[in-house]
Amino acid sequence: MRISSFSIHPVAVADPPIRSSYGLHAPYALRTILVLTTTDGITGVSEAHGGEGSLAALEAIRPMVEGMDPFQLHALWMQWGRPANEGDRSQTWMVPGENPRDARTRAFAAVEAACLDIIGKAVNKPVCDLLGGRARDAAPFSAYLFYKHGGGGGTGDDARADEYGECLSPETMVRQCKQMVDFYGFKEIKLKGGVLEPEVEIETIRQLRAEFGEAYPLRIDPNCAWSVETSVHVGVSLKEELSGGGYLEDPAAGMDGMAEVRRRLLAVGVETPLASNVAVTSLDDVVPAWRADAVQVVLSDPHYWGGLRAVQKLSDLCEALGMGVSMHSNNHLGVSMMIMAHTCCVSEPMKFACDTHYPWQSEQDEVLVGGRVKFVDGCVVMPDKPGLGIELDMDQVARLEERYRKLPFRKRDDAAEMRAHVDPNWERVLPRW
Amino acid sequence: MRISSFSIHPVAVADPPIRSSYGLHAPYALRTILVLTTTDGITGVSEAHGGEGSLAALEAIRPMVEGMDPFQLHALWMQWGRPANEGDRSQTWMVPGENPRDARTRAFAAVEAACLDIIGKAVNKPVCDLLGGRARDAAPFSAYLFYKHGGGGGTGDDARADEYGECLSPETMVRQCKQMVDFYGFKEIKLKGGVLEPEVEIETIRQLRAEFGEAYPLRIDPNCAWSVETSVHVGVSLKEELSGGGYLEDPAAGMDGMAEVRRRLLAVGVETPLASNVAVTSLDDVVPAWRADAVQVVLSDPHYWGGLRAVQKLSDLCEALGMGVSMHSNNHLGVSMMIMAHTCCVSEPMKFACDTHYPWQSEQDEVLVGGRVKFVDGCVVMPDKPGLGIELDMDQVARLEERYRKLPFRKRDDAAEMRAHVDPNWERVLPRW
Known about the structure:
The structure is a homodimer of 433-residue chains. With 433 residues, chain A is of the alpha/beta class. Chain A is built from 13 helices and 14 strands. Chain A has 2 domains: 3-125 and 394-404, Enolase-like, domain 1; 129-381, Alpha-Beta Barrel (TIM Barrel), CATH 3.20.20.
């Protein structure tokens, strides 16, 4: 069995105007659907970050993938070459998916997932069963809350209804959370912060705690928007609210900043773990982050960490170091949803509910036959179907690809969107508070 | 596909009178052959340490394995339960395979290998291809030299010819090495030390270096027979001879002893890495060993580290920590030979040639159809056949099992053998020198 075709489909997905410290999401999120076909007619699918950077990396790996045996993933990785352990790999200034330093890792990850989908279909087993079997039968996800402006995303005929409405206050955030928890059944809650004044975000967390109680662990992630001083202030203020399985994610920029926040929080008796997907983005970063005690929970991602097996590797490394492991998310469709769910289910040390942007996308733009991935009590249940357990709706892919071709967006630029729609003078300033 | 039968075959294998700091090998080495069969008639084989301890652990895991889906290995591990991270797991006083603290891990490992053999046969792929594919196409092994008395092992009708002859001097060791390297094509050399006076062992290494040159990296392993003082003396004396890919393995006992040897060697400019399978025997030991700089090369083993995936995990952990990884061996037959070879080929960071006792066993006691595993230039080449790539000769298994039943040996006790055959007053004393 050899891979005989390698087909890349850039797509644009309507996305609501949600906010983070990077700025504002554009009306469309960019993703890439990868379809590999084998000589015996098996199709493997995958999903990667979108835009020109991703396309270029996938084009670069294509010649090594065409003709390969999909089982020989170690060989592909060794031939493709691991990125040099040098330079600033942090996502302080670049959103995940736009950092050229992990573009190669992301391309490999996309190919790996498609190959595992092929292998699963060839042997009639779900992907999770190819990777040691299920450490859990269902992958728990968290309610991923965003401050947002009014609007549902998309434009013209592609405009979507505004499912969650404007949300720029603690009260509307509680409403957003109730809506999301009611619908999906999530049992953990993540607030994307770094958008409003820290006192407002503190109040938001407090109101969420008051509404949902201790049974729903809380995390807040301002994407480095805060100074060390502010981070410590928030950590102290939310000592109780973030306890019991919650964490404080990337409050300040850089390994040094995170380590300083940790030292100062511990000095005043606040043991809230610090999580990160900004300071720590590759396997080479984990040991240094642990030595500095800068990070206590690493956010994995089967996309930019290099695939499902790479996340298993990361999870095992975190366990050996006594660190926690959780999962980061970007905007994504159902293919990534299943890649993330399989990854979680084969990574025993992953004890935190994973992040997902899935509630921010809609049926209208799903590329799966049968529509969106279903949630049960906040979890995606491992399928009995082979491979990733999904089938692509190629008409939908074609529709979203045609949309991509027509639209001007070729990379994610949240700052430009912020200037275009919210504040013409907006600049990303770190720390902002 | 479910496992419908679980069949355990204890076997006794003729073994020459080779020496280590634990004492003397008995005329028979004990191993256990495990055969699992599935509801659709696929057979998976495995090999484990021998004797009553191994049998008891395998009997204990049996009820969880009968009826299981062989793909669900994570679930089995979680149900079976990882050993508590406590107590002295070192092999300072107990030979590998006799330590009750890793008995459960070893039982799981035996089942995992048999399940992977089943899966490989079910999907028509070699085991290495189920674990990410080949990081290398052939597993390199080292010439594993032992001081020995005259005799080929076995007794009565089962006695074997003395292939290597008595070897209790540097000169005879060079002869042993030439014979082994000529036949197998090994490219690295390991001397089991801790048997003769350190000055004689130093001279042995020097003569090996003089004969084979820098192209053949050298390692020596006295199994903790030396004091810190003696270890440093040997390290300094063999600075040149152990350079260029060699190492000093378990010179002194305990994590503290190893760390002290390392400090003192570095202080005098000797950078020879210290390797260990005695101070470090489980994933919980690796980070502490690294923090103390007690060990720079960890010796894996797909048996007592918990299986092929556990060794992949260990290799990745070592790589993340900047440690080297190699592979330990006990007496074994062809089933373990293939388990070890597949493990090496799917563990990219394993850059050292692996240890194997295989040259110390013979065709006469091999349990594989077609006879012994073949070596090419010191390597075992990955098979194209599915699973482990081997088939059991059940007549041979029955013959060796009948022998086991008749013999009195039920555990490995090298000290008792030493007293019975060499010195009635022999005791294991650490450090001896």
